[in-house]
Amino acid sequence: MGSCCSSPWTEAIPQKQNNQQHRQQQSHRQSFSLQQVTPPGAMVGAAGEIPAFSEYSLAELKVATNGFSSENIVSESGEKAPNFVYKGRLQNRRRIAVKKFTKMAWPDPKQFAEEAWGVGKLRHKRLANLIGYCSDGDERLLVAEYMPNDTLAKHLFHWENQTIEWAMRLRVAYYIAEALEYCGSEGRPLYHDLNAYRVLFDEVGDPRLSCFGLMKNSRDGKSYSTNLAYTPPEYLRNGRVTPESVIFSFGTVLLDLLSGKHIPPTHALDMIRGKNILLLMDSHLEGNFSTEEATSLVDLASQCLQYEPRDRPNTKTLVATLAPLQTKTDVPSYVMMGISKHEEAPLTPQHPLSPMGEACSRMDLTAIHQILVMTHYRDDEGTNELSFQEWTQQMRDMLDARKRGDFAFRDKDFKTAIDCYTQFIDVGTMVSPTVYARRSLCHLMCDQPDAALRDAMQAQCVYPDWPTAFYMQAVALSKLNMHTDAADMLNEAAGLEKKRQNGGKGT
Q1: If DSSP codes are grouped into helix, strand and coil, which group holds residue 498?
Q2: Looking at per-residue confidence, does 173 or 60 come out higher?
Q3: Active-site pick, 108, 136, 150, 193
Q4: Strand 84-89, strand 95-100: pairing
Q5: Residue pair 423/398 in contact by the 8 Å Cβ criterion
Q6: H or E element: which one contains 229?
Q7: Do 387 and 329 share a structural domain?
Q8: Where is this region: Disordered (predicted)?
Q9: SS3 state at 97
Q10: Are residues 168 and 272 part of one domain?
């Protein structure tokens, strides 16, 4: 059996360690590798449950982004963007977007952390939410939910398959207005440089407002990186962003939705005043829109683009105006966008499956339970080398806790089993992959897939090449609706079993 964890999911853990070291490393491991497993009370969005806001290490984000590889850059503004955004994947397999600020953009780490925590408190289904930050030396990074279906700019200006239909454009306007209204109600009314690149589409095609615009690009830097023709007139005068400035920028997004082009506001207003609304409309819509709805949207855009900030509507008015325009409310966004919905990937490994693998692929928790009961602890052989001096009363109490857990596990009293196995684990004198695997199943039986995934990962740390640890991770990931990752785990487990069989080692 291996002595450390070789998977990218977890940190290497020395096998031989005293009790205090074991407990400290176990605690560190969970905060480092598993801190993003969803806490109680987190909001549920299209991508699943949103983790609590937390701090990441630079090393962790380097691993997640493959060393900030240029291949992982997803920001579309190119040289115009003062900072790059990378896609990445955390050790718990969650996909993330990482915004990397230029050197010394935020010289004061405390000020950066305070700003990030302020934005990190926001949680809404219309936001691509901020889930963490990193402040390490001169490095300043933000970590957000990853949105896999590109930006509004891409779908409006650079589309390949189909343009966005009218009803979906109205939905985009409404959802982003809802996001702005929520941010304002939570004391974060300032959004920096709102434009079509800041609107992202999640895995089910719903539009979300990027959380990155809720923070400036630097402590003292400019709040707008787009062409000056699209910036609010008062920003050109005094360089300050106000809630009314955000409304002006929202008006430019409405122009984008109407025209399918990036039209300077002054030019668009001239067209509107000249009653040339049809000339303003996107020709790719081929007339498939309601003139009445288009007129309402044009009127709203005109109000948002008023020269005097006081003449612009507030976010409540935006939402109230756009809500009645919503049509096709029963049609999912991914259908209107022509996006392939993320389907549940069948757990179909490349290697033949053992009975354990078959049970996991079927998500048959009862069959998994029977197999773990029958296997007992024979896979734990060699994971612990205990001296005579360690056979103390504490050791006997610990083994008694495990025995009570085993009885409860056999009798399907899973809550009691969790309590007993936890007593065994917390002492820290022995490490047992089987106990982690059993407690993982108990958590699944109690509908606690996050905790089940944690335990399956800990089992792998203790025994890096143990197929059961990977199988249990596959089941937990599937329960968390991370089906592609579950399929990968199942296939890896089957491959490990085949490797063991070829090596003549039994299960």
Answers
A1: helix
A2: 173
A3: 193
A4: antiparallel
A5: yes
A6: none
A7: no
A8: 1-36
A9: strand
A10: yes
pLDDT of residue 83: 77
138 in the same domain as 120: yes
Q: Are residues 132 and 106 in the same domain?
A: yes
Residue 90's domain is classified under what CATH number?
3.30.200.20
- Answer whether 0.90 is exceeded by the pTM: no
Would the CA dihedral through 157, 162, 163, 169 be positive or negative?
negative
Angle at 343 between CA 342 and CA 346, to 5 degrees: 135
Question: Is 193 one of the annotated active-site residues of the chain?
Answer: yes
Which residues are CB-contacts of 277 (< 8 A; sequence separation ≥ 6)? 271, 294, 295, 298
* 4 domain-assigned: no
Q: Of 128, 145, 162, which marks where a domain is finished?
A: 145
What tokens does 488 get?
């990968």
**Cα dihedral angle (430, 434, 440, 443), rounded to 10 degrees?**
-80
Q: 283 with 229, same domain?
A: yes
For residue 8, pLDDT over 60 is answered with no
Residue that finishes a domain, picked among 305, 337, 369: 337
Q: What is the per-residue pLDDT for 434?
A: 92
Q: Give which of 239, 225, 154 is closest to 194, Cα–Cα.
A: 225
Residue 253, pLDDT score: 96
Task: Please report whether residue 414 resides in a domain.
Answer: yes
pLDDT over threshold 70, residue 392: no
Which burial class, exposed, middle or buried, applies to 327 when counting CB atoms under 10 A from its CB (0-12, 13-18, 19+)? middle
314-339 pLDDT, tens digit per residue, is 999 999 999 999 999 999 999 999 88
Residues 140 and 179 in one domain: no
- The owner of tokens 């920001």 is 75
Cα separation, 156 vs 151, in Å, equals 9
The tally of domains found in the chain comes to: 3
Examine the domain organization and report whether 217 and 241 are in the same domain: yes
CA distance 191 to 153: 18
CB burial readout 205-243, b (16+ within 10 A) else e: bbbbbbbbbbbbbbbeeebbbbeeebbbebbeeeeebeb
Q: How far apart are CA 318 and CA 180, in angstroms?
A: 9
Cβ–Cβ < 8 Å for 218, 106: yes
**Placement of tokens 């915004």 in the chain:** 99
pLDDT in tens, 352-383: 678 888 888 888 898 899 899 888 888 876 55
Per-residue buried b or exposed e for 328-365, using 16+ beta carbons within 10 Å of the residue's own CB: eeeeebbebbebeebeeeebebebebbebbebbbeeeb
**Per-residue DSSP letters for 104-141?**
TSS--HHHHHHHHHHHHT---TTEE-EEEEEEETTEEE
Domain with 470 in it: 19-34+346-502
Q: Tell whether 325 and 350 lie within a shared domain.
A: no
